[in-house]
Amino acid sequence: MEAAMTDDSPKYVYDFSEGNKDLKDLLGGKGANLAEMTNLGLPVPPGFTITTEACTVYLETGSTPESLDDEVATHLDALEKARGKKLGDPNDPLLVSVRSGAKFSMPGMMETVLNVGLNDQSVEGLARQADNERFAWDSYRRLIQMFGKTVQDIEGEAFEDAIEEIKREKGTQNDLDLDADDLRHLVDVYKGIVREHTGEDFPQDPREQMTAAINAVFDSWNSDRAVLYRRQERIPADLGTAVNVVAMVFGNMGMDSGTGVAFTRDPGTGEQGVYGDYLQNAQGEDVVAGIRNTVPLQDLEKIDKTSYDRLMEIMATLEGHYRDLCDIEFTIEAGQLWMLQTRVGKRTAAAAFRIASQLVDEGVIDLDEAVQRVTGDQLVHLMFPQFDTSAKVQQLGRGMSASPGAAVGKAVFDSYTAVKWSRSGEDVILVRRETNPDDLNGMIAAKGILTSRGGKTSHAAVVARGMGKTCVCGAEELQVNTKRRFLTAPDGTEVHEGDVISIDGSTGRVYLGEVPVVDSPVVEYFEGVESSGDLVHAVDRIMKHADEKRRLGVRANADTAEDAERARRFGAEGIGLCRTEHMFLGERRQHVERLILAEDDEQRDAALEALLPLQRWDFLQLLTAMDGLPTTIRLLDPPLHEFLPNITELSVRVALAESRGEKNENDLRLMQAVHRLHESNPMLGLRGVRLGLVVPGLFNLQVRAIAEAAAQLVKLHKNPKPEIMIPLVGSVQELEIIRADAEQVLQEVAEETGEELNILIGTMIELPRAALTADQIAESAEFFSFGTNDLTQTTWGFSRDDVEAAFFSTYLEVGIFGVSPFETIDVDGVGELVRIGTDKGRATRPDLKVGVCGEHGGDPDSVHFFNQVGLDYVSCSPFRVPVARLEAARATVAQEGSSDSR
Ligand code: ADP
Ligand code: MG
Ligand code: MG
User: Fold this and answer.
1) How confident is the model at residue 256 (pLDDT cuts 50, 70, 90)?
2) Catalytic annotation present for 471
3) What is the DSSP string of 460-481?
């Protein structure tokens, strides 16, 4: 086989015996794990894998690499020898499946063609060999159906309608009632469909079938739904898929055959014990497509004890080997068990935490690894509210708990409506008999998904779990009529399109109307409410270990004492950002207006004086809540006109007064001020430190309020730790002037109160110029906090409010962004400024404290980046604090891992 390779062309084909589980980049997940199972000595049908590299060549150039044909021929030869059969042999044909398999699993997104190698002659040979005509013709009709759909782009419905038609003629619902003659007839009909759609006959040359199927699998990488799925799951677009060519084994040979899927633990709850579905006399997709009702895996023990026992043995082997929950696909051919796929299985958030904790108890993994086995996103998921079951509710029915969460919305019965309604701001629940990949858009748009058919391994369940979306599947007692858009509950209640329903993905229950929701037990745990259960136990031990492990500090963004207290309970080690603008709204607006309208020093000072006790009171409360912990208070940031009345309101008021012949002097002056202060680009206007420089006394007032509050608390033997933060600094000179003023105020307050105050003064780094001149700025700043929202806006040169609606969807679509830079930090651009700013700042002042505030502080990927750059802390919203704690620890463990292996 080596002969086919020249020195400069890479090896594009690997026999299963040549690969292993770590070669996912090259062989895809399916191929790598098929190889791993082969090498473990498990019963895997022989086969080979065409690499993802061959796929990328094909996608880039439009044709497969030159050497590929020869390599495939050599491997096919070996496969034929191993099976003692030849592809296309009219008397005893070898059949193969051609299966997609990318690095990351993309359930149902790409294509697989089974029974490749059958034609008008070999179908007879297969029938004779198996002594089973029905089986042979069933296999042939499946090939034409899958080939037609996948390779020749024929609407699947054409084939489905044809089989429905034959079943109707026969008066049956069950495809098992179709006999050999029916299926032979169906093959004729199918061939007619192919001819009609392509103008050509179904290809009879097996090798031609195989090549066409391989190329179709490559093409399926760029199918609309695959592209959409990758975007949703943040899977890079350039990985390509591998193709596995596998000798067929047959689950459709009779009742002693069948096919199934299984998990080594329950992927929904994490409960120990195998879990799965089995279907007799069936092939491939039948199980997941929900075409016939499957039986629970446990029933296999009665059907075929030998295979069942062997399967249990193999599942234990796989769990031991992968040290994690595995899911598998298997087929039994006439009493002989074959393994067709395995991988470390997807699971719900709760299952992830429970399983990680169980595996620690079982001594399989340590706590470091347990921290790696869960994610911040999963934790977020567990913090979702749940239904309040003590409320009076009307249960419509019950299905399986496919993906947890509590979702409420209007029932819609097709994906198109789901998308349309959700665009106009409605919450919708997508109700289907079963979903298929074409429903993906609707599933993304919906709050939750409800199906009446299919098990926990159905398309709806798998995809919803992957997206972290609430899903109840297989609610068979509900009759769903998608054509007429309603469902009927067993008690006769009807739910029509637009009626509100509530679905509970954790219990599988479906309710009529809107059921109230309550906090999750995990949130209660963080809140310090007495709570128990193995989930809380798992979260507790993993979070405790995470806190021991992480290097990065975690603070919260909180403006009020109430938020600060919650943040503390959630594990915040300080406040990274207290915005003060909220403190000037409501009744205090009048003082700000007076400040803006002041005509002389006296009027201005009076306005400031009125504000001082109010501000002091704010900080007293905040610093009391955060006693002993650093509390970063940002001086006023937004442009002043934000505090003035809305121009339209004001105009109306003035006009009304005029019509009554009155004249409100104050309103008129306000009008003038609004016009005077109007800005074309407020985001880039008179705000932040600029405000402090042009409005005399404003920042001093805030500094004084902070200092006086701190002094007062020190007198009460408290330990306030305020830090003063200046926003929007672009040059060190700005900071120097404000700093000098602030220091003077601090000095005055210290003298007045007789308390020694140690209050740090630092700045936000949120302008590119600040990052680039951070060495100078650090001369005057005791800490930096990266304001990554503004830094993203100013680095990219766009204002968030304008761009998100205007063109972000296009940017995401054409791939300029993989993900919005406001969600996850743009490492190459904005991140580089963070790196430069940190390095330059520390070059000047080695003990400079550096943090980040802004939404990125609670985003898992961004947290990993901030850890890597060496920041001291991240600050995020209180609710995100546990996520940041966990992800900071995961980042540390990952970093240790990668340096170990170096
Ligand atoms: P997916 O990635 O969508 O799971 P697969 O490539 O796993 O697609 O194929 C789907 C199903 O087809 C498998 O679960 C298995 O039941 C069946 N199948 C694939 N290859 C073979 C084979 N060589 N013999 C028998 N059944 C097969
Ligand atoms: Mg599969
Ligand atoms: Mg800012």
Assistant:
1) very high
2) no
3) HHHHHHHHT-EEEE--TTSEEE
Q: Whose CA is closest to atom 27 on ligand 1?
A: 284
Contact 331 CB / ligand 1 (< 6 Å): yes
Q: Which helix (H) or strand (E) holds 771?
A: helix 768-772
Burial label for 491, CB within 10 Å (0-12, 13-18, 19+), is exposed
pLDDT band with cut points at 50, 70 and 90 for residue 457:
low
DSSP code per residue over 558-601:
-SSHHHHHHHHHTT--SEEEEE-GGGGSGGGHHHHHHHHH--SH
Tokens of 404: 């947890």
Residue 434 has pLDDT above 50, yes or no: yes
Amino acid identity for residue 24 in this structure = K
Whether the pLDDT of residue 805 is over 70: the answer is: no
- Ligand 1, closest atom to CA 47? 23
Name the active-site residue from 55, 471, 578, 853.
853
- What would you report as the CA-atom Rg of the chain, rounded to the nearest whole angstrom? 33
For residue 104 and ligand 1, the question of a CB distance below 6 A is answered with no
CB of 374 closer than 6 angstroms to any ligand 1 atom: no
Given pLDDT bands bounded at 50, 70 and 90, which one contains residue 645?
confident
Cα–Cα distances (Å) from 836 to 623, 769, 823, in that order, read 32, 11, 21
Dump pLDDT digits (tens) for 654-680. Answer: 888 888 988 888 888 889 988 999 999
- The three-state secondary structure class of 484 is coil
- Indicate which ligand has the atom closest to the C-alpha of 557: 3
Lowest mean pLDDT among 31-45, 328-342, 376-390, 832-846: 376-390
The CA 473 to ligand 1 mean position distance, Å, reads 22
Atom of ligand 1 nearest to the CA of 261: 14
Q: Which two tokens stand for residue 867?
A: 């850890």
Catalytic residue among 75, 459, 641, 856: 459
Q: Where would I find the H helices in 68-132?
A: 68-83, 122-130
Q: What is the pLDDT of residue 2?
A: 44
**Residue 459 falls in the annotated catalytic set:** yes
Report how far ligand 2's centroid is from the alpha carbon of 249 (Å): 14
**Ramachandran angles phi, psi of 4, nearest 5°:** -70, -15
Would you state the pLDDT for residue 9?
77
Beta carbons of 517 and 502 less than 8 angstroms apart? no
**Three-state DSSP class for residue 361:** helix
Instruction: Give the chain's length.
Output: 902
Pocket test for ligand 1, best of 37, 48, 114 (most atoms within 8 A of CB): 114
- When the pLDDT of each residue in the chain is averaged and rounded to a whole number, the result is 92
CB of 248 closer than 6 angstroms to any ligand 1 atom: yes
d(C-alpha 351, C-alpha 273), whole Å: 13
pTM as predicted? 0.81
